[in-house]
Amino acid sequence: ASESAEILASKTAISVKKRAAFSKNLMPERLKDAYFHITNLSLLAKSDAKFEKLVKKYMQKSVDEGAYAQFAFSQKDAPNKWVLVEIYKDEASFDSYRHSENYKAYAKERAGLIDEFDGFGLKNETSFSKVKF
After folding, report:
1. Overall number of domains in the chain
2. Chain centre to alpha carbon of residue 110
3. Of the residues 10, 49, 81, 106, which has the fewest C-beta atoms closer than 10 A?
4. Residue-wise pLDDT tens digits, 59-103
5. Is residue 86 part of a domain?
6. β-pair partners for 114
7. b/e for 82-92, b at 16 or more Cβ within 10 A?
């Protein structure tokens, strides 16, 4: 699994080695032409634990060169509400991932867990970040 997938799919402490590997993916020069995809999900009742396992499983398998990072967040006060944030090298990398066998398997497995979802993409024009470890 990629270092960033392991970090993002984990609720445990992150080692310094993994932090360094992850931060390389999100350097300003790499994000200059990046494509961001954000998905909002509402899960069916009692599906949140199963969905969390599913997201972890497939994030750790997502090792495509064009995928810089994937984040999955559940809302503290509404565990059936999730936001997925994916960062790709460019829109072509996003499209490539969406046609991969890994994504197709994930989409098939999640189908029975989701009540509603919507997503949108953003092409990066300006970005900045400050990360402190």
Report:
1. 1
2. 15
3. 49
4. 877 667 788 888 888 888 888 899 988 888 899 999 998 898 988
5. yes
6. 43
7. bebebbbbeee
